[in-house]
C-alpha cells in the first residue's frame, strides 16, 4: 500500500493513506491476481477493507478500529505498529504421553499353547561335525526355550496408533515445534482416521456405513447431473433454458445450510497454517492430505464430492455460462468457499482465506484425497512389529511374566553400565559352558576358544587375564609326542648301516 504524508484538520500524518487510495490500490491488485480475476467489484474490495479494519489490520489515524466502517473517501488510515497476527508461544516440543504410541511392554506377550500328547523333547548333544555346521562361535548347550507371541492388536489400540502418528506427521508437515493453539488432540478421533483410510471405494471416495449420515438422494442426483453435463440427466427431466443454473442453485442451497463448514471449526487454525505452504505444492498437498484425514467421514465424503464437482464444472466446455457477469471458475469458488472453510469468530478474514485455499484444493483434489504413503508405511511397520513372535530362554534375566508397572528415567552413565552388563553376562555363561564341556575334544575346544577370543576379546581376557589361568582351565598339547619323534630321527640315522648290512648278506 503506497504511504505518504497527509494533512487533516491542520495536522500532519506521516505514513498514512486515504480510504479512496486504499480501495483503488487493493481493487487493482485483486483484479490482477489469478485467484480473483477482473470480476472483482469495487464494492467487494470495500467490504474486504472493512474486514481489515475490524480485524485491526488497519486503523484510522486516531487509533480506532473495529467500531466504524471503512469509508471510500478522504478519511485517513494507517497500519498499526503491532501485527494483528496471533503469536504462538515458542517453547520446546513437549509431547503428551497419552497421544504417542507407548513403548512395547513385556506384558504384551502371551505364551503359545503347547501341543498335548507329545513327549517332552530331550536335549541332545551334537557331534563335533554337526556342531561346526550349526555354529561359528562356541555357545555351549542351549537352554530350554518357549515360543512367545504378542497379543492381538485391539481396535482401540489401532485407532490410537493412527491418531498419534497422523498428528506427529501433521506437525512435521506444518513445520511447527508444537501444535498448541493450532490443534487440540482431544478433538481428533482415531476411528475417523481409520475409517477415512480403509472405508473407501475404487475412486478414493469415503463410503459411509450409516446411510442416514450421507447426503440426500436429490442432492447427489443434482451433483451428478451438473458434473456430467450434458449427459448427466439420469431422471430424463425436461431441460429448459436456465435448467443448469437451477441445478447449481439447488446444490448450493444444500451446502450453504450446513451448520458448520466442511473443514469444521476445530480444524480452522490448522488449515489457516497451511496457507503459508501453498507456494510449495508438494508440501501443501501433504499437509492437506493429513489434515483431511482428521475430518469426520461424512464431512470428508461431502468435501470430496464437492471438490470433484467444482473441478468438472470448471473444465466442462459444453456447460453454458452459469452467470452473466462472473466467470464459471470464479463463481464456483465464491459460491462454495464459505461452505468449505470458516471460523466461529466473525473477526477472522474467512472469505479471503477460504477463497485462496479452496482454489488450491479444487485444482489438486485428486492428490488431496489420497493417504500419504509415508504415513501408511510407518503404521504398517509398527503393527508388524507388534505382531512379531519372540523366543524366551529359561533362566534368562528378562522375564516376560513380570512386567514393570512404570518406567523410571535413569542417567546416561547408568544406562551404559546396564547395557554392558546385560551384554557380557550371557557371553560369560557361554564361555563357561564351553570350558566345562568334557565331551568336546581338546583340539576342537581350543579352536572354538580361539574364535571366541577373536569375536569377544574383552570377555575372554576378563576370564583369562594371564596365560597361567588359561593353562589351568584348558589342557595344552601333551608332551608324549616327543618320544616318537626321537625314535623316527634315530631310525633315519641308522638307515645307511641297514643298507650295508643287507649288501653283505
UniProtKB/TrEMBL annotation:
InterPro entries: DEP_dom, Rho_GTPase_activation_prot, RhoGAP_dom, WH-like_DNA-bd_sf, WH_DNA-bd_sf. Pfam families: DEP, RhoGAP. Residues 177-369 form the Rho-GAP domain. The lineage of its organism: Eukaryota, Metazoa, Chordata, Craniata, Vertebrata. GO terms for biological process: intracellular signal transduction. This is Rho-GAP domain-containing protein.
Amino acid at each position: 500500500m503506497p504511504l505518504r504524508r497527509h494533512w487533516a484538520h491542520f495536522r500532519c500524518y506521516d505514513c498514512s493513506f486515504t480510504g479512496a487510495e486504499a480501495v483503488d490500490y487493493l481493487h487493482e491488485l485483486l483484479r490482477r491476481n489469478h485467484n480473483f480475476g477482473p470480476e472483482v467489484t469495487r464494492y467487494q474490495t470495500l467490504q474486504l477493507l472493512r474486514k481489515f479494519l475490524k480485524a485491526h489490520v488497519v486503523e484510522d489515524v486516531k487509533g480506532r478500529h473495529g467500531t466504524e466502517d471503512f469509508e471510500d473517501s478522504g478519511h485517513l488510515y494507517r497500519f498499526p505498529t503491532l501485527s494483528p497476527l496471533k503469536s504462538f508461544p515458542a517453547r520446546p516440543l513437549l509431547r503428551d504421553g497419552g497421544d504417542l504410541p507407548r513403548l512395547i511392554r513385556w506384558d504384551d506377550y502371551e505364551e503359545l499353547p503347547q501341543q498335548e500328547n507329545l513327549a517332552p523333547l530331550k536335549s541332545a548333544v551334537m557331534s563335533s561335525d554337526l556342531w561346526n555346521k550349526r555354529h561359528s562361535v562356541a555357545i555351549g548347550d542351549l537352554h530350554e526355550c518357549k515360543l512367545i507371541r504378542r497379543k492381538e492388536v485391539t481396535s482401540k489400540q489401532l485407532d490410537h496408533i493412527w491418531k498419534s502418528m497422523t498428528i506427529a506427521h501433521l506437525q512435521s508437515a506444518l513445520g511447527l515445534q508444537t501444535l498448541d493453539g493450532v490443534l487440540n488432540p482431544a478433538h481428533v478421533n482415531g476411528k475417523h482416521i481409520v475409517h477415512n483410510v480403509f472405508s473407501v471405494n475404487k475412486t478414493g471416495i469415503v463410503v459411509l456405513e450409516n446411510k442416514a449420515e450421507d447426503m440426500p438422494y436429490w442432492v447427489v442426483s443434482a451433483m451428478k447431473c451438473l458434473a456430467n453435463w450434458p449427459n448427466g440427466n439420469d431422471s430424463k427431466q425436461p431441460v429448459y433454458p436456465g435448467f443448469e443454473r437451477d441445478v447449481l442453485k439447488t446444490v448450493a442451497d444444500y451446502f450453504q445450510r450446513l451448520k458448520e463448514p466442511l473443514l469444521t471449526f476445530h480444524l480452522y487454525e490448522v488449515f489457516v497454517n497451511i496457507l503459508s505452504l501453498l507456494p510449495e505444492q508438494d508440501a501443501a498437498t501433504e499437509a492437506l492430505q493429513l489434515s483431511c484425514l482428521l475430518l469426520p467421514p461424512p464431512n470428508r465424503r461431502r468435501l470430496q464430492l464437492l471438490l470433484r464437482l467444482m473441478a468438472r464444472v470448471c473444465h466442462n466446455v459444453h456447460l453454458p455460462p452459469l452467470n452473466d457477469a462472473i466467470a464459471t471458475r470464479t463463481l464456483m469458488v465464491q459460491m462454495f468457499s464459505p461452505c468449505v472453510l470458516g471460523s466461529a469468530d466473525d473477526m477472522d478474514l474467512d472469505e479471503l482465506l477460504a477463497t485462496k485455499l479452496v482454489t488450491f484444493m479444487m485444482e489438486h483434489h485428486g492428490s488431496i484425497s489420497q493417504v500419504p504413503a509415508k504415513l501408511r508405511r510407518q503404521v504398517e511397520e509398527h503393527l508388524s512389529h507388534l505382531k512379531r513372535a519372540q523366543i524366551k530362554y529359561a533362566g534368562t534375566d528378562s522375564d516376560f511374566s513380570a512386567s514393570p508397572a512404570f518406567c523410571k528415567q535413569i542417567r546416561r552413565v547408568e544406562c551404559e553400565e546396564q547395557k554392558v552388563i546385560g551384554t557380557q553376562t550371557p557371553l560369560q555363561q557361554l564361555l563357561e559352558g564351553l570350558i566345562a564341556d568334557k565331551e568336546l575334544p581338546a583340539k576342537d575346544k581350543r579352536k572354538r576358544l580361539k574364535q571366541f577370543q577373536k569375536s569377544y576379546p574383552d570377555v575372554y581376557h576378563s576370564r583369562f587375564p594371564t596365560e597361567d589361568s588359561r593353562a589351568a582351565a584348558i589342557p595344552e598339547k601333551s608332551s608324549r609326542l616327543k618320544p616318537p619323534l626321537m625314535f623316527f630321527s634315530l631310525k633315519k640315522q641308522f638307515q645307511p648301516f641297514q643298507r650295508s648290512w643287507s649288501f653283505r648278506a
